[in-house]
Write a structure and sequence with these properties.
Length: 111
């Protein structure tokens, strides 16, 4: 039963990712469902409520429209959200509305 649900949600995630507009609602719902099926209770966290630990890669919602990976860090000037590829540039700070821990890597199946 869980395998069927996972296949359905993975299909929806692939479909949502393939669309040029990348509907954040579809992506966020699919990611949350996959985490629940896999036993991870990771949910979106509003940035005004709780911030992640400094020097952490997380998934973020930008402007309530897009989901991407981000690097979060704190320094003497405050807190910052940036692209993991360009952590020195404070690109996302003003746009991040929600964050979620990175999902766990898949476990290798033994046959």
């Amino acid at each position: 039963m869980d395998e069927e649900r996972e296949k359905i949600w993975l299909g929806r995630l692939r479909d949502a990712d393939a669309r040029a507009t990348r509907s954040s609602v579809d992506l966020a719902e699919a990611l949350a469902e996959i985490c629940k099926i896999k036993g991870n209770s990771k949910e979106w966290t509003y940035v005004a409520d709780v911030l992640p630990r400094s020097d952490t890669k997380v998934l973020v919602v930008l402007g309530s429209k897009f989901i991407t990976e981000a690097y979060y860090y704190q320094d003497s000037l405050g807190h910052h959200w940036s692209s993991p590829k360009r952590p020195w540039e404070d690109l996302y700070t003003q746009y991040v509305t929600h964050w979620m821990p990175m999902p766990d890597l898949p476990k290798e199946e033994t046959k």
